[in-house]
Amino acid sequence: MNALSASKIAHYVSKLENTWMISSAMVVEGLSWWQSWICVWFGYFVAAIFLCLSARIGAVYHISFPVGIRASFGVWGSMWPIFNRVAMACIWYGVQSWIGVFPPSGSLCIKSAIFSPSNPITRQQLVSFSLLGPFTVQADSDPLLTNDTPYKGVMSSIANFATLIVNSLDFSRVARKPKDALYSQLFTIPISFAVTSFIGIIVSSSSGVLYEKPVWNPLDLLGRFLDGASKGERFGVFIISTAFALAQLGTNISANSISAGTDMAALFPRFLSIRRGGYICAAVGFAMCPWHLLSTSNSFTTYLSAYSVFLSSIAGPMICDYYVVRKGYIKVNELYSSRKCSPYYYTFGFSWHAYASYVSGILINIVGFIGAIDIAVPVGATYLYNLNFFCGFVVSFTMYYTLTRIWPIPATSKTWNEIDADVANLSVAYNQGSIPASSIDEESQSRTSSSAAYDEPDSAAKGGKGHVDVRGARVNYLTQ
Questions:
Q1: Which residues contact 287 (CB under 8 A, 6 or more apart)?
Q2: How far is residue 116's CA from residue 91's CA, in Å, rounded to a whole number?
Q3: Which of 1, 33, 273, 342 has the fewest CB neighbours in a 10 Å radius?
Q4: pLDDT per position as a tens digit, 80-90
Q5: Domain total in the chain
Q6: What is the CATH number of the domain that holds 183?
Q7: Cα distance between residue 389 and residue 151, in whole Å
Q8: Where is this region: Disordered (predicted)?
Q9: Which residues contact 466 (CB under 8 A, 6 or more apart)?
Q10: How far is CA 426 from the centre of its chain?
């Protein structure tokens, strides 16, 4: 195991405390302990597969999510998917910061003239929340949704990783080779999250025996321990609470603040850096009052299940574009170009193929979402919404493939072609040999002579064996 693989494993292990709440919420919503655990195993294994699919894009071409999404949505059309990711990171920043302080329970809530009676937050909790935020400027995380049937439990686990499925490129882009971003995630995610979930399931089920009904939030459970507690018990609660706070701090840094800062810097590169984006994320996370979202095990999950619909409809076109339509072929230099002759400029910088697919993935779930907020809808729509991530992903994936088959897009390959090449018959930079002219779609050659003049003069080769000098169609492979 190399250092990068070990780092990826540590990255996911550091975020395991979130899974406690997901699995225990399943128990509260009616699943048995073994049903909840099976849901976690299966759900996180499926999530790991999706995550590895998107992570490979960054691992091969070493590009982040704001850059990689331009291939499918367009150089300007990528702004909306990036904004979606920023919004989710800000929300999760607030939620994770709130979990990092002591959450409210009915017996602990102090009604104050400073706070509205509808706000279940005390002065002490507000101060703690404010102090935790500045330490976590950099971000992403995961959505949780609770349900009362096994297949909904599976969706809750997948939705918990919906944000990371979309922007896993931000982390995999530093991989030395694609394999580094594969096995370290494919097996670590389901195994490690299942172990933590099992602890949450046992504790939540046991709390139902002690307190008549299960307690889904571990920190609420700690609050119960303080009732009539001795000095030793209070000290134990302090140690456990401190551990939770540190765990949430690490989760916010690795999962929310970094992602939000990176994506905001991509949206407004002239005005925002990753650090400034992290500060904005912290401010938004505070303003959205996360204590309301965590007031019950159901209020938060309804919203998150809805947002996984948006994220799955982004992941569908992105993964279809890379694996099926382009077959791994990306012109990296053109991803940074807003010239009209760029193959990723599409129509005014927007890919209507991707946006039509995106809307289709949302529409298949919209009626079911209305039903989730207690409005009567047909039963069939509810069944579809119970599988919202799958429905959104499959519909948007299929629609994108269909549209690109009917109306082809430029810069595609007829065979699997994960290389950084500009023209046919090119000795490539990644030691893959030559590309046969027949393997690159004619559409990918539809660049004007003026566009070739803007190409970078050379492209570094992997392995230090030289570089490829690309100027239009002239190629010189220089060896040391």
A1: none
A2: 22
A3: 1
A4: 999 998 988 88
A5: 2
A6: 1.10.4160.10
A7: 12
A8: 437-467
A9: 477, 478, 479, 480
A10: 35
